[in-house]
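Record pair follows.
FIRST:
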Amino acid sequence: MNCHLYLRKDTLYLPTMGKMAEGFLRGVEPVIAVSVSNADAMRQALQATILRGNPLVPMLRRSEIPPPVLLKYAGVRSWSAFERGMSFWTIEDDGTSFRIVGQKKQPNRMWNDDPAQIVTFAPGSNVDQVIDRMIAILQDAARQ
């Protein structure tokens, strides 16, 4: 399971990450947007998004790829506008353990794992522990 979390202007955006046949992920509906100041709403949104997992979605030709699903929720017209002021994390579950991975934008405009922002949970950790830690990370990031 792979969950993408985007923090922009004190709002947490959680798209469903659909898995294509080639193993790549793309954001699809449903998307949940909640205020980072509301810990209970974030908890419910994270639980729902993680529970949904990565449903299979069709592989699209380049000409069929729609604009990123998050744009309409954020009220912006382009991905570059959405990225301005955005912070990005992933929650990963490989079946034995969870990881929270902060992403860092590189000079080539790509997002890569930031080794300074990786939290690895012990095998057997439960999803509630991961969600509690993620909420703390998000609220701390929103304060900065």
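SECOND:
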Amino acid sequence: MEREKQQLMENPADSAARADLTKKLEVLSSRPISNPEALVSIAEAQAVVGDSVKAWETSERLLQKDPQATEAKRLRIQLTTPSVLLNKDLTKLKENPDNQEAKASLSKNLDSIENHITIFDPYVGYQAARAHLVLGDTAAAKTTLDSIVVQYPSNKRIKTLRQKIGN
């Protein structure tokens, strides 16, 4: 796994290394692993293949076992981005739409993002609009998308979601 992780870090476009690493992560995720070094390595590999939510969850699992785990703290800090936090909550709500804890977390993370960021990265803005929709606030989703489409008029994902919502 370390070899593929290093290859992918050096060349993110290496689809063979990404596929190999993804397969190895699938196998490892089915095993009960408690070794802190192994968990950090798994979380790093998850982040490298682009699964930031799983990487964040793996680092959190390690920190629950060992709150002083330096590498897990470092990784969690790197992964605690607005898009990862919104993705984590949206994923939980997709699995269970009635999850009140995830709804509360989504609302809190959304408020935090909107209160501290004036210009969205288009992906974060898209996630924020999705979060508003999940929370039932269509007007806020429209407003968010309208402000982002002005800055990123060629972003198809944003325009498509805005069209789906309608007037």
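COMMENT: Residues 3 and 17 are 9 Å apart (CA to CA).
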